[in-house]
Specification:
Layout lengths: L1 H15 L16 H4 L33 E7 L2 H13 L4 H15 L1 H11 L4 E5 L4 H7 L3 H13 L7 E3 L11 H8 L3 E3 L19 E9 L3 H13 L3 E9 L2
Parallel strand pairs: 1-6, 2-5, 5-6
Antiparallel strand pairs: 3-4
Helix pairs in contact: 4-7
Amino acid sequence: MMKVFEKIRDGILDVVFPARCVGCGEEGYYICRRCEGFMGESALICPLCQQSSLTGERHENCGSLYGLEGLASMWEYEGVVKGLLHTIKYNGVVHAAAEMVWRAYIDMADDIMRFSAFLSYLFSKNTCITYVPMFKKKERKRGFNQAAVFAREIGKIAGKDVVSLLEKIGDTKPQVDLTKEERLQNVRGTFRFNAQYSKPNSEKIPNILIPKNLVLVDDVWTTGATIKECCKVLKKAGVQNVWGFTVARTP
């Protein structure tokens, strides 16, 4: 019923407030074809040392028991990309996320050599999708979790289940104004694994097993503190492999 309501709401919004380009205001799309050329592609990096990686995979010499296997970030977090993410996150235009994810997928398919490792992992048989959770009080106030919205859109494209494997158990300061060290401290111990998934024959969700491979979705990668903390929790719970995906990365 909620999904039906969301579709009706989005349809009304499209009529009353038609999509306008965040770059120039042209009606029709949230990023028009002209402004699309200003979406700067993000260089792929090793998620551990954050140095260049041709395919976004972790460097062999950057071993970590609880680290990400790779990171795929599509665009640099600036200009029209930053504008559209703010439109989604702070103006509540959540249906714009579908346009953004489809653009990301098309761009990745066009640049298959760079994104081959991530796409192969995403479409492999044993891969599921999860996302960085919000503190419940904040999510209720905003009305949605943008990371979950992006995760569901990716799931539609890849034909993958999206599972809520993580919970945020503590409120934290906004990461934007913190130093790298403060960001790490700010998120430490604030996430936990959703216990209902750790029992294969639980009454709540029968026969749900901990996934072997996961794509962990968030909107923006800055220092990676949040995703890395989530990855650590997932791997301690039994997940074997985790790739990170963010729509954008701070240059």
